[in-house]
């Protein structure tokens, strides 16, 4: 398997780890239990600053080549482009919401829970479509030269949480992920 697809698969697995934490914290919030808002803030900050700035642009380039080589998939590719935009907006909105909650804003519990559950559902469905439909199609349609060019173009996109160098702002989040992995 080529390194670009491996990187996308790895990003999706890492994203699912974070989505499980978001889901757990959403359940805590829904039931009135202690909710780790700083942790949710770190996750939403990460979603705004890695997937939306690096991961999705890489996918967009992969799928643009796929669309060119397999025009029959144009509708599905265009849908994913649109989802990347809406998911980026949702990430920013949820980061703002968590920031407000940390500032003791009064927000209806049901609104917060619905926003996070909708986000979780949208993100998981999005990843599933990519993994089951478009990435396999791209693996078949794109040529070695396409993959090499993508690898060169995106070689410097270091993941600030799961990459080789952990950025300081994600240290607490990383410790939580590692603790959960040890369970």
Brief overview, please?
The protein is mostly helical and 183 residues long. The protein is built from seven helices and no strands.
Defining traits:
single chain, 183 residues, mainly alpha, globular
Please tell me about this protein's structure.
This protein is an all-alpha fold and 183 residues long. The protein has helices at residues 3-31, 37-49, 51-69, 74-102, 109-141, 144-153, 171-181. α4 (74-102) runs antiparallel to α5. The longest helix has 33 residues, at 109-141. The two termini are 30 Å apart. 24% of the residues are buried. The model has no long low-confidence stretch (mean pLDDT 93).
What kind of assembly state do the chains in view correspond to? single chain
Mean pLDDT: 93
Shape: globular
Strand content: under 5%
The N- to C-terminal Cα distance equals: 30 Å
Largest sheet: number of strands, sense, barrel closure: none
> Treating each run of at least 4 consecutive H or I residues as one helix, how many helices?
7
SSE pattern:
HHHHHHH
> Any idea what the radius of gyration is?
17 Å
**Share of helical residues:** over 70%
> Helices and strands: which structural class?
mainly alpha
Low-pLDDT parts are: none
The tally of strands reads 0
What does the secondary structure layout of this molecule look like, with pairings?
Layout: H1 3-31, H2 37-49, H3 51-69, H4 74-102, H5 109-141, H6 144-153, H7 171-181
Helix pairs in contact: 1-5, 2-3, 2-4, 3-4, 3-5, 4-5
């Amino acid at each position: 398997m080529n390194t670009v697809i491996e990187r996308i698969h790895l990003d999706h697995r890492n994203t699912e780890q974070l989505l499980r934490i978001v889901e757990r914290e959403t359940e805590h919030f829904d039931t009135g239990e202690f909710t780790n808002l700083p942790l949710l803030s770190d996750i939403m900050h990460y979603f705004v600053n890695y997937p939306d700035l690096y991961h999705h642009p890489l996918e967009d380039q992969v799928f643009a080549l796929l669309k060119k080589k397999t025009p029959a998939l144009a509708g599905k590719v265009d849908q994913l482009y649109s989802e990347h935009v809406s998911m980026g907006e949702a990430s920013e909105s949820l980061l703002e919401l968590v920031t407000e909650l940390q500032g003791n804003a009064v927000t209806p519990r049901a609104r917060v829970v619905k926003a996070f559950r909708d986000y979780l559902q949208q993100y998981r469905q999005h990843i599933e479509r990519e993994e089951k439909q478009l990435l396999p199609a791209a693996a078949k349609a794109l040529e070695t030269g396409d993959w090499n060019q993508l690898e060169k173009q995106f070689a410097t996109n270091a993941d600030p949480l799961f990459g080789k160098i952990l950025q300081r702002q994600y240290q607490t989040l990383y410790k939580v992920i590692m603790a959960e992995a040890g369970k």
